[in-house]
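Quick one, tokens below. Sequence please?
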């Protein structure tokens, strides 16, 4: 388990929270929410804590500005995933006013038509490597940080002979992942929302 100081954890969560705000799915989810920055920071902190426990947190050069949360499916824990879901719900109710909670629930009901994290079961049976979050600070973009952070995961999957899976809701990310050998295998759409989920797989090479 990584030994992360409280200060480093806060820094990681801060960068990750800012990255969450740029995501089309989160933008649609937070429409009408006043305290969106505070909420995303709290959610990011929970994701970082989960990733540390699951040994799924990967930092570039041990710095908090380039972060990936990714893990082998054999290391995935349904109990830990349920824990973070419940904690996320709890902190949401703690931060938001009742009116905002109702707004968030309406938004999520709409987005639920395109939000699906079990899609890999349609294409893969057995072990795989799942990339959940990649967050690169704006100051590092265009400087090779993404490649340096992402390449070790690709090399690991290739050595183990297992596919990699990820989903993104940002259409501009599709080409980026295709550059690294991922194939777009499914796009989930709904007339209820312009947000789409792009489901991608990279076969071992």
């Amino acid at each position: 388990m990584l030994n992360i100081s409280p200060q480093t954890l806060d820094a990681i969560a801060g960068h990750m929270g800012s990255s969450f705000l740029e995501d089309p799915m989160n933008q649609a989810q937070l429409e009408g929410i006043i305290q969106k920055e505070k909420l995303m920071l709290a959610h990011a902190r929970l994701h970082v804590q989960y990733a540390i426990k699951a040994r799924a947190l990967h930092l570039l050069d041990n710095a908090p500005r380039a972060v990936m949360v990714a893990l082998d499916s054999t290391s995935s824990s349904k109990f830990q995933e349920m824990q973070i879901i419940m904690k996320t719900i709890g902190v949401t109710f703690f931060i938001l006013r009742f009116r905002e909670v109702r707004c968030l629930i309406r938004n999520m009901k709409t987005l639920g038509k395109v939000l699906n994290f079990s899609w890999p079961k349609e294409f893969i049976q057995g072990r795989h490597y799942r990339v959940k979050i990649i967050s690169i600070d704006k100051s590092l973009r265009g400087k090779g940080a993404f490649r340096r952070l992402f390449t070790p995961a690709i090399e690991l999957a290739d050595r183990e002979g297992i596919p990699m899976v990820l989903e993104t809701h940002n259409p501009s990310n599709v080409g980026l992942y295709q550059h690294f050998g991922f194939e777009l295998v499914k796009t989930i759409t709904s007339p209820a929302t312009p947000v789409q989920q792009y489901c991608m797989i990279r076969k071992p090479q």
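The chain is about 50% helix and 20% strand. The beta strands are 57-59, 66-72, 129-136, 164-168, 183-190, 193-202.
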